[in-house]
Amino acid sequence: MSPADLIVPMSRSLPLNDGLWYQIQNATDVESTSVTLPSNAYRAVLEVYASFHGDDEFWYTNTPASNGPFREVTVRVDGVLAGAVWPFPVIYTGGINPLLWRPITAIGSFNLPTYDIELTPFLGKLLDGKAHEFGFAVTNALDMWYVDANLHLWLDRGSTVTTASLVSYDAPELAANTTSSQSGGPDDIMYHTTASRHISTTGWVKSSYGNITTNATQTFTFENTIAFNDDTSETVNQTTVAHACILAADYAGVLYSVQEHRNFPLYLDSQAQEQVIVRSSVTHGLDEATVAAGRWSGAGNRSLRNMQSSVVDVEERDGKAVGVSWGTRQTYRYEAADGCYFRNVSSRDYSVVSDQSNEVCVKAASAGGGTVTAALPAMAGADMAPELGRN
């Protein structure tokens, strides 16, 4: 589908300084802005950004005493939940241990991921010429989250007014649960947190393109386990899965159908070995796949898999660091009809020791398949951590 005709910034507006992020300071904080939409809009998509800092920079490591490890950004239109974002756990360049990200920085740290929420079914509530409130909040938030958004609007060039109606809405309450268990000594404890959410909306818009009915669905699942062992180790194992489905159709059939699947695995481990080696390791990834169809579908299918594993060993004697070594391996694979790209990079201490890339695509030989895949070596998973020596 073609790009939006109009992009409306949803930033916080102050008398002297426009364009600032919304600041979410706690779990009850709601930041909002009022927007009046053009009367001839026929599609609306909200692009959301989220950046976490302060007490919530490492929200995925939080125990129940710190509101637990689950976070979601919610978007409300006139007080009604319109969509949600379950964020990718970006680790900034000083996070966990700064050496983990020298010289290869963590996924997303220099280019924050963005998240799209299809708001077209809500146009039936928004095309009345009045200002409407868009509100942003973060479930379980601690200080500080920065949230910002852009509203992408498609305008009907063939008319000055479109009509619309929201015909169905289903958004059950968030399902979330945390349990704890203890084994061995008082410092051996494990917390297990799960969450899930489903949001589905359907609406129609009548424009010069005809009467188009759009269904937008978001489905999320989350699982996090935090384990402490006798004050010598801490592990975090987390998986966030987000699935979005958008289906727009007119009397002749499907105009565009988009299914987006995102998976964010995260594994952190910090442990003392032999009481002198303190090892910190991070394995995380951003796994995305998009399947598109229909007369307006545009570029078609695409996928991205970006996996990274980093390890740092610090040798300590008498409470002082006397030696350190670290390494990172990252594999990046993008596949689409318009091209493929692969990169495999490894570093040891401050030096890049291996860097391989490939842009070759191979079209599947099966008749009528049209599938495009990259002619690339297999990707490594959670076992991709680099081997380290000791100084």
Automatic annotation (TrEMBL):
InterPro entries: PNGase_A, PNGaseA_N. Residues 2-171 form the Peptide N-acetyl-beta-D-glucosaminyl asparaginase amidase A N-terminal domain. PANTHER family: PEPTIDE-N4-(N-ACETYL-BETA-GLUCOSAMINYL)ASPARAGINE AMIDASE A PROTEIN (PTHR31104). This is Peptide N-acetyl-beta-D-glucosaminyl asparaginase amidase A N-terminal domain-containing protein. It comes from Arundo donax.
